[in-house]
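name: query_chain
kind: protein
chains: 1
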Amino acid sequence: MAALLLKFKQELNVSLTKGDRIYGASLNSVAGFEQASIDDLIYLGPCSDLGFDTSDNTYAVLVNPANQEYVSPNTVPLNITYAMFSKNNIVNIANVKGYYAELEFINNSTEKAELFSVGVGVEQSSK
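structure:
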């Protein structure tokens, strides 16, 4: 199967890196909400490259199904309206590592919002 190029108008998540597992699904409108069934989720393959395409001002993610370790039994639909990624849990299984971390929570809503709890696991990277 040829490489699959996904293009996005919005900026890509800063955590997305080469090797991450890319999934896609088609969203359906149900009771005014866009949703996808877990049964509709398709593993597209690993991210082989990502960047900004200046020709059309979009963010691009190249997925190379030829490199995938698991071959999806489904065919890749042309109407993928939702994409997500996951990290390789063999490599990324530990807590946050390092000596410094900074978090910023932003609420873009005009409605009042309350943050109930935040938790994080931290691991010193060396001694």
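note: The first strand starts at residue 4 and ends at 8.
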